[in-house]
Specification:
heterodimer; A: mainly alpha; 66% helix; B: mainly alpha; 6 helices; 0% strand; cell inner membrane (chain B); transmembrane (chain B); transport (chain B); cell membrane (chain B); transmembrane helix (chain B)
């Protein structure tokens, strides 16, 4: 478990570095990507394609392995079905993303950049997690 | 790029490669999806199931550490102009929506998309669409907070 936590910390640090370096911790830049009717900024698309490359190789490696390097088993989410819960959740998330230009990763990383606004967003994100647990669909 | 004066294609690609490498390490070594919403919910005890608590806490704590390292080495240019009321509403929607939709830009947008998961492709297309629609609507009504 200790080794898994060290891997997770390294992964989190790399993730945070990538977000900050690529300008994804800047809500104005993220909103500019979503602002297709305004001064569109394609940077986020470069970030996504850059990230998809190593992840594509990672899935190729996973298919050839029976277990991860430091854990007992792979814990992979289902790839189907596409149901109302998935789509309504993604729709709500996208709305919040557009309102603030922040999604969970950049908001957490931004705690080191703009602690005040990032903390407000992160605290209300936690309230959102809590609200979800009150829903009958949450189990 | 003269067409898009503010774009940072090189930093975007390098940062993206780091993000992909990070998620690849999490998957190949720990067998887990590096999804920021799921890891954070798990880290603060607001998700049942998922990664072990120590893994979730370590990943979550790593995010601001990584950002702080970049800030110290090369500096970070960020503009936080959104009002706190809007940040609160947005945070609430993001928190609820990512639990309901089982992921966000990282879990669905990067890890799931690279897997060509139909659920993740559908989720990513949906949150991109409502994100674009929300920004367009804000522009339409002249809201600038």
């Amino acid at each position: 478990m200790m080794r898994q936590a060290i891997v997770a910390l390294a992964s989190g640090v790399l993730f945070g570095m990538g977000l900050a370096l690529s300008g994804m911790t800047d809500p104005v830049r993220v909103r500019a990507f979503l602002d297709v009717t305004g001064a569109w900024d394609p940077t986020l698309a470069f970030v996504m394609w850059g990230a998809l490359l190593p992840m594509g190789f990672a899935w190729m490696i996973v298919r050839r392995r029976t277990r991860p390097v430091v854990a007992e088993a792979f814990h992979l989410p289902a790839t189907s079905p596409i149901d109302a819960r998935l789509i309504s959740g993604a729709a709500l998330f996208g709305t919040g993303w557009g309102l603030a230009g922040l999604c969970p990763g950049p908001a957490l990383a931004a705690l080191a950049i703009a602690p005040g606004p990032a903390l407000v967003f992160v605290l209300f994100m936690m309230i959102g997690f809590g609200l979800f647990r009150l829903l009958p669909t949450a189990r | 790029m003269a067409v898009f004066p503010d774009a940072m294609p090189v930093q975007g690609l390098i940062g993206g490669l780091l993000i992909g490498l990070s998620a690849a390490i999490m998957l190949v070594f720990n067998g887990r999806v590096a999804g920021c919403s799921g890891m954070f919910a798990r880290a603060v005890g607001l998700a049942k199931g998922g990664a072990p608590g120590s893994v979730a806490v370590a990943f979550t704590v790593g995010l601001p550490i990584g950002a702080a390292i970049v800030m110290a080495l090369v500096g970070v240019n960020s503009h936080f102009r959104t009002s706190w009321g809007m940040l609160a509403l947005a945070g609430l929607l993001v928190g609820l929506g990512t639990r309901l939709g089982s992921g966000c830009t990282s879990g669905h947008g990067v890890v799931g998309m690279a897997r060509l998961s139909p659920r993740s492709i559908a989720a990513t297309m949906t949150f991109m669409a409502t994100g674009i629609a929300t920004v367009a609507l804000l522009r339409l009504i002249g809201w600038n907070a």
